[in-house]
Amino acid sequence: MKGALVVNNFLATEKFRDIYSRLETAFSEREVSLSLYTNSSLCHIHGEDIPFRQKPDFVLFWDKDVSLARAIEEKGILCVNSADAIEKCDDKAKMHLALGDIPCPKTIIAPMTFPNIGFTDTSFLTSVAERLGFPIVVKEVCGSFGAQVYLARDFDELLQITTEHQSVPLLFQQLIEESFGRDIRINVVGGRVCAAMLRESKNGDFRSNVTLGGSTLPYSPSDAECELALEAAERLGLDFAGIDILFGKYGPLLCEVNSNAHFKSTYDCTGVDLAACIAEHIIGKCN
Asked: What is the pLDDT of residues 75-92, one digit of tens each?
């Protein structure tokens, strides 16, 4: 069995290279070759073969280049995660629509405008403020590591944040006060919970991301938290995912779902080798 690991050519930091190395090692230890490709090395003429050195039995797609993932699937090659699942996770508006009635913070998707026009009328923000109450979390629909997420404490800040970022799609979300600066990261692989950790801000930030300085502790999720994470992964069609859960007043709430969540911090915190979990799942899926 041979596989291909597809990564983004333009994310070449040590953090990303560490993940790629862990994945290659996990498959090698299971006697499965995993050849590394960048998305730019696989550029091809539509309708022609994708320039793999050898056609792989599967592709572990560690990128968000959805068009390339779809092209790979069109050639009859198993792509994990799937293009559809990656696309839904990479766009937070599409993600919330796909999640349906799963418990989440109250969320309003901003009306669409055009980058060269922006919001020439911001009266809709009055309704956003009345329905969500302050503080309000403002998110660019595409973003990672807690970046592109902002907190508006009053209407003036809401207006300022919205107008400053009106060239990109946005959504507005209720702040869950009970979960201010802390959440749970649950890693799901192959329909089971493999690891979980509590993330907590140490600098007063409402975001708990490790990249922003958050600390981590091993965490034993409740049945309700596990069920929420597993249901979210299933609805989005994910083979593996990092799922962020908030502490709601009346029970857990789903915050976000990451189709290719970085897992070094999870390993450092819990000792669980998610690269091995992913390798075993994909190999089992191919057999």
From this structure: 999 999 999 999 999 999
